[in-house]
Amino acid sequence: MFVRGELEKIERKVLNGKRLSREDGEFLFNCNELTWLGSLADYVRKKICGDLVYYNVNCHVNLTNICRARCKFCAFGRGAEDKGSYAMTIDDAIKLVEEANRDPHLSGLHIVSGLHPTWSFENYLAFVEVLHEKFPRLHIKGFTGVEIQHFANISGLSVEKILIRLKEAGLEAIAGGGAEILTDRVRNLLCPKKCSADQWLNVARTAHKLGIKTNASMLYGHIETFAERVEHLIRLRELQDETGGFQTFICFPFLPKNTALEKEIKQTSMWDDLRTMAISRLMLDNFQNIKAYWVMLTVPVAQVALSFGANDIDGTIHRENILHDAGATSPRSLAEDEIIRIIREAGRTPAAVDCNFNIRRIIT
Ligand code: SF4
User: Cα of 74 to ligand 1 centre, how many Å?
Assistant: First the structure.
């Protein structure tokens, strides 16, 4: 009876457009009414953003996997001497983008990389300058809050100055990774060498003030508690109230294969993935877009997630590396036709967007 009463109270709040509290969020993570949760999230999705599902025709560019941080959950970063380590030259990056750019619908680049121990900020900046100059038609979204803070640390420049220089070089938006779980307990245990929760939020806040939109994410399913997932969502919601600069929120289920946590932690279930997607839509009442990232969720789960609050399915990607190092079983890229088919089969309308969610084509 108590549970039914709680569900009804939460449902009333959602239907009346009232904000869910921390306690509501924690309750939802502990309740197993998955289909109810999905329909509530789907109701909110429809009310906020209608039936369009956004995707982009994009190309991921991972400049290097050599990284000084060596986060325990990461299978991508490695030492310079480790097997499989690489660092692209500018010519390598141009070649990759030239290949992807044979697709006339390619609209953007997504550039994220390791924190290379000897590269300067100027090294990273040069990639943006050259790619923007050579491919002016392509929108560049790049670097996470972690990378931006790293650039500030190694250059001695402020985060604001770093962002201004990147913007001048052609960067149009900031990627959403690196948020992991925005509590110091989790970060100290899993990724003590990278920026703190406050620093990550500060990068986003600073970017928003400069008119640069950013994305946000949550890496869940490792050592965090449900209360910490809710804390994470509330911290993002508070910043979104303040700036309105987040464009989309991405749920990243942790993939343990080939990470330092492989033996301790099992991969999340589809149940948890769908529940987390729906709760994110309900808690993040000031976010327009919630992304079902098919690379981590798998294509079938991402498609179902479109009925659990998601309205964004990421993009074609061209060649994904980071998560395939962690054993992602999804393809490395998806053809645009396939994305369109997946969205249509879910009863929705595909809309191709650029990295700032400007609609380029609605596929009717
Ligand atoms: S998650 Fe990012 S910062 Fe951490 S080890 Fe991997 S590449 Fe480096």
Answer: 6
Closest residue CA from atom 3 of ligand 1: 69
Centre of ligand 1 from the C-alpha of residue 159, in Å: 19
Q: How confident is the model at residue 333 (pLDDT cuts 50, 70, 90)?
A: confident
> Which amino acid, 304?
V
Q: What single-letter DSSP state applies at residue 269? A: P
CATH number for the domain harbouring residue 288: 3.20.20.70
In this prediction the pTM is 0.95
Task: Provide the token pair at 118.
Answer: 């000897």
Answer left, alpha or beta for residue 234, where phi above 0 means left and psi between -120 and 50 means alpha. alpha
Indicate which residue's Cα is closest to atom 7 of ligand 1.
114
Domain that holds residue 299: 2-362
Structurally, the chain folds into a number of domains equal to 1
* Residue of 65, 73, 76 with the most ligand 1 atoms within 8 Å of its CB, for mutation: 76
> Higher pLDDT residue, 322 or 253?
253
Residue 31's CB: how many other CB atoms inside 10 A?
16
Q: How many Å apart are CA 171 and CA 156, to the nearest integer?
A: 20
Beta-carbon contacts of residue 66 (< 8 Å; ≥ 6 apart): 77, 78, 79, 80, 85, 86, 87, 114, 116, 117
